[in-house]
Specification:
CATH class: Alpha Beta
Number of domains: 1
CATH superfamily: Homing endonucleases
Oligomer: single chain
Distance between the termini: 48 Å
Helix content: 40-55%
Order of helices and strands: HEEHEEHHHH
Strand content: 15-25%
Largest sheet: 4 strands, antiparallel
Number of strands: 4
Structural class: alpha+beta
CATH topology: Endonuclease I-creI
Number of helices: 6
CATH architecture: Roll
Amino acid sequence: MLSADYVVGLTDGEGSFTIYPRPPGGSRGGKSFKMECHYYLKLQEDDLAALKQLKEFFGCGTIYFQRDKRENHTDCYRYEINHFEKIAEVVIPFFTEHKLQTKSKKKDFDLFCKIFKMIQKQEHFTEKGFTKIMELKSKMHKNRARRMREIRSSGGNGEQTLMYSNPSSQASWG
């Protein structure tokens, strides 16, 4: 069985706390954005056993294969918890009690928790709440993957690029 310290270290190095806004409509219909909260870790194929132990440790979540065709990347397995109640009952209490050690991951977790509370209060159904959530989300994962996407999308010249369009124009705010 994994220790809490090991899980914290693994998450500090390979984990992510992420919010995905899903636009109105889609396969289930709806007139407002759905917000999904995800905690996940990705590891190379040969580290699948560690993800199985992580799933056993938390007692929930899903493991699935993720093919990656990008240059210098390998196929991997992804362990993910995205069920709203499990985020509330398992993920947030665990990482609140067992503190992350890296500054950047602590910041992401704090923002994740703030956004999660706003979603619990259904603030994302208002334009003001949705906008605030998107502002907080834009502060997550700073100076890592987003910066690399900006560099690639600008041809490497460092020009700013728009990361998301104004989604409030697509939603019904009641």
